[in-house]
Amino acid sequence: MNILEVNGKIDFKKLSMSMLIPIAGGAAVGLLANRNSQKQYKKLKQPSFAPPAWVFPVVWTGLYTTMGIARYRASAKAEKDEKRKAAIPYDIQLGLNFLWSFLFFKWGLRGTAFIEMALLFSMITLTAYQFSQIDKTAGVLMLPYIGWVAFALGLNYSIWQLNK
């Protein structure tokens, strides 16, 4: 089974747009909010489970790609009334995802970033559920994202507490 095929075909234009938005958005956030974030991250007191700074852009590129594929699949399989129902939580979680970097790195609001990430986690979970109602594969594609954000939630909390 090819995860890019929906109903036996691939709509490359829709697939490209679905992937481009989170990847390009993540890159733009990286330029605007995360400038010098690796240096800043290294200066923070960190818990023992904190990964090295280089891990984050690698992981996020993969996650943005899979969430774009999930969005594409859900959108391609959804009936008209389902499209909006699935698109709203997806768009909200993507906006929250981008906002987090500003809160944590640009503005140094680690506690606010933690609370915002808890909301983000909820919206990702809702998105995965909505996607799975339309297309099981789309829902499954969101699971690594849920797992990473659950880990990041603990990391954010720990860094916030260690750097008060």
Kindly list the characteristics that best describe this protein.
164 residues; mainly alpha; 7 helices; elongated
**What is the number of beta strands?**
0
SS content category:
mainly alpha
Which runs of at least 5 residues are low in confidence (pLDDT < 50)? none
Strand content: under 5%
Sketch the major β-sheet. Answer: none
Radius of gyration: 16 Å
Large-scale geometry: elongated
Mean pLDDT: 94
In whole angstroms, the N-to-C terminal distance is 49 Å
Element-level helix/strand string: HHHHHHH
> Into which percent range does the helicity of residues fall?
over 70%
Put simply, the count of helices is 7
Explain what this protein looks like in three dimensions.
With 164 residues, the protein is an all-alpha fold. The protein is 79% helix and 0% strand. It has 7 helices and no strands. The protein has helices at 12-32, 37-43, 55-77, 80-106, 110-134, 136-141, 143-162. Helix 1 (12-32) packs parallel to helix 4 and helix 4 packs antiparallel against helix 5. The radius of gyration is 16 Å and the shape is elongated. The N and C termini lie far apart (49 Å).
In short:
This protein is mostly helical and 164 residues long. The chain has helices at 12-32, 37-43, 55-77, 80-106, 110-134, 136-141, 143-162.
List the helices and strands and how they pair.
Layout: H1 12-32, H2 37-43, H3 55-77, H4 80-106, H5 110-134, H6 136-141, H7 143-162
Helix pairs in contact: 1-3, 1-4, 4-5, 5-7
